[in-house]
């Protein structure tokens, strides 16, 4: 969790949380909980220098010792009272302190990730940027929540990775947000925005095939049944956490995620509303077909237009939206680039070797490719 601090109170604040799966450093074989040791990873993460980053607003997660930017992510094994006793590690989470600008938040992500890479390599690991584990799709464990839906979400999350987009709003603007209707508004628009980020077409070592096509995101398809698209945190200060987007290798995408979430909070003219069941249906459809459907295009376009206006009104850089306009116009998503990469790489390890670094927009080259593909459209 990232909470606003006194330094950001009364202003816009932006923070990121991102999950990374781990690879063997030499072979690039994807690793899973059987290959990872929680205590060893925690000792490594706690030793990464972070004195130049504020920890204000960070909570201390169960079984962790520090309010650090770095966490071990995975599945908690609990006692009968649901108190965590141990953790089966799936990978690592990185969280940035709340920043005054989108650019600063993304720069924090870049710097902290570089330190994480350096540290993990000493243990023979390499972090990778992908939203669903490429060779593991099944995980089962005893319940660690009393609520069945929370347990199912925790099981599903064990093979998925994603970013959380944290935004705090200046007090005067926050008071104008209709919190009672926000849920239905997000249900209506957010699935189409998630569609523009889809990037997990690989499962069980192969392309995800469903209904005669290669689907765009096994992650979104599976998590849509159980996981929320957002949280509202009211303590210690009001903060909105958006959870539906997929991991991106392109740093500008994270800036676009911030820009696309702001209209859901600030634009009262976005008057579409939908139920939870409709949201689940829409996400399942979009996870398979992407942004082809007319309702997806219409809703995404409405939010993109609003994001352009909000960026102009508040002085935000609107250029990260260009890639998302391009995706909407062409229907080509990061998932399609990953399919091309997979087909050219001929193996999961070869593919994963191209997904270990963030980019600022430079082309992502697949192994032995005659042409370039890019997950960072400019």
Describe the protein's architecture and organization.
The chain is an alpha+beta fold and 378 residues long. It has one domain (14-352): Creatine Kinase, Chain A, domain 2. Helix content is 38%, strand content 16%. The chain is built from 12 helices and 11 strands. Strands 1, 2, 3, 4, 5, 10 and 11 form a 7-stranded antiparallel β-sheet that branches. Strands 6-7 form a two-stranded antiparallel sheet. α2 (102-121) packs across α7, α5 (179-195) packs antiparallel against α7 and α7 (251-266) crosses α9. The longest helix has 21 residues, at 294-314. It is globular.
Low-confidence spans: 362-374
What sort of overall outline do the alpha carbons produce when their principal axes are compared? globular
Largest sheet: 7 strands, antiparallel
User: What's the level 1 CATH class?
Assistant: Alpha Beta
**How many β strands by DSSP?**
11
The average pLDDT score comes to: 93
Distance between the termini: 32 Å
**Oligomeric description of these chains:** single chain
- Counting structural domains, the number is 1
User: How much strand content do the residues show?
Assistant: 15-25%
Q: Tally the helices: what do you get?
A: 12
């Amino acid at each position: 969790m990232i909470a606003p601090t006194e330094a950001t109170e009364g202003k816009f604040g932006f923070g990121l949380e991102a999950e990374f799966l781990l690879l063997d450093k030499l072979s690039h074989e994807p690793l899973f909980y059987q290959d990872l040791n929680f205590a060893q990873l925690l000792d490594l993460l706690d030793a990464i220098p972070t004195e130049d980053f504020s920890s204000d607003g960070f909570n201390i997660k169960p079984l962790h010792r520090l309010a650090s930017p770095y966490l071990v992510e995975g599945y908690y094994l609990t006692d009968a009272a649901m108190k965590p006793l141990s953790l089966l590690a799936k990978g690592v989470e990185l969280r940035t302190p709340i920043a005054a600008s989108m650019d600063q938040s993304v720069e924090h992500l870049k710097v902290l990730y570089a330190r994480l890479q350096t540290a993990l390599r000493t243990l023979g690991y390499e972090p990778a940027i992908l939203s669903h584990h490429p060779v593991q799709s099944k995980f089962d464990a005893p319940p660690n929540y009393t609520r069945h839906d929370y347990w199912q979400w925790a099981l599903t999350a064990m093979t998925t990775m994603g970013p959380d987009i944290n935004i705090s709003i200046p007090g005067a603007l926050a008071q104008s947000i209709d919190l009672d209707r926000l849920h239905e508004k997000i249900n209506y628009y957010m699935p189409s925005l998630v569609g523009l980020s889809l990037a997990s077409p690989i499962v069980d070592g192969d392309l995800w095939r469903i209904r005669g096509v290669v689907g765009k995101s096994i992650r979104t398809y599976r998590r849509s049944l159980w996981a929320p698209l957002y949280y509202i945190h009211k303590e210690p200060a009001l903060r909105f956490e958006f959870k539906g987007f997929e991991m991106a290798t392109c740093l500008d995408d994270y800036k676009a995620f911030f820009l696309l979430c702001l209209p859901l909070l600030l634009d009262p003219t976005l008057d579409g509303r939908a139920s939870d069941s409709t949201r689940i249906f829409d996400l399942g459809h979009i996870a398979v077909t992407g942004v082809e459907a007319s309702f997806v295009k219409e809703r995404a376009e409405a939010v993109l237009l609003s994001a352009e206006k909000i960026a102009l009104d508040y002085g935000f850089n609107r250029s990260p939206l260009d890639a998302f306009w391009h995706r909407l116009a062409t229907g080509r998503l990061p998932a399609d680039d990953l399919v091309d990469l997979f087909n050219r790489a001929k193996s999961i390890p070869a593919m994963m070797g191209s997904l270990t670094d963030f980019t600022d927009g430079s082309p992502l080259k697949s192994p032995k490719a005659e042409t370039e593909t890019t997950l960072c459209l400019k």
